[in-house]
Amino acid sequence: MMEEESKEYNVRVIKAILSGLPDSIKAKVEKCSSAKDMWGKLQDIHSKGALTMTSSKEDVGKKEVNLEPIKDYENEKIENEEDLKEKLVSSLEEISSLKEENKELKKKAQYSGHNLDKTRKEIDIVKLQIQERNEELIKVKEELHQNKKRHHEEVMSMTNQLDKVNKRGDTLLSHLNKVTRS
Fold first, then answer.
1. pLDDT at 131
2. I want to staple 100 with a disulfide (CB 3.0 to 4.6 A). Which of 65, 77, 78, 142 is the partner?
């Protein structure tokens, strides 16, 4: 079950990454088999200077982004597994939104040469926010794993207790049958 969830998570992250890339870069990374490999390839492309502030004409105007501030979950306590799942989904949606915002900022830079430095700073901020979200996702995933492990241990303990009660009940029933026969 955990491996299946991991594969699904990997596919969702790959889709989120691809949604924020211009077609020219997307073509270079879309054959990667994992999100980790894709991210590494993007870092390689970026470090070689191939990742630029321009995007193709097809990318311009595809979708408008609602620029909402990112919620700060750092001080929140996660109460149960459903909360963890909701936070994972919410974080993935925010990552996708941040990628769209990043895409929009790239377009602004292309058409507003005099604001290019400011836009690059905004993009850096968005990248940091994405990195923070990724780190938060890792923490939430670890908490989910710990909760599942704890719940499994509790179920196993209750099962053992139930087995003991059943054995004791069988013993008492047997004893009762002996007493009623005599």
1. 93
2. 65
CB 72 within 8 Å of CB 24: no
In a domain? residue 25: no
Task: Calculate the alpha carbon distances from 41 to 25, 47, 84, 125, 168 in Å.
Answer: 10, 10, 29, 21, 62
Distance CA 158, CA 59 (A): 56
- Domain containing 60 equals 53-181
Residue 86 domain flag = yes
Number of domains in the chain: 1
Mean pLDDT, the chain, rounded, equals: 77
| Tens of pLDDT, residues 85-119 | 777 777 788 888 888 888 887 777 666 665 667 77
| Gap between the Cα atoms of 178 and 18, Å rounded | 73
Name the 3-class secondary structure at 63.
Answer: coil
Beta strands in 53-94 (DSSP E): none
Is 6 part of a structural domain of the chain? no
> In Å, how far are 8, 9, 10, 145 from 4, measured between CA atoms?
6, 9, 10, 14
Residue 73 has pLDDT above 60, yes or no: no
DSSP at 65: -
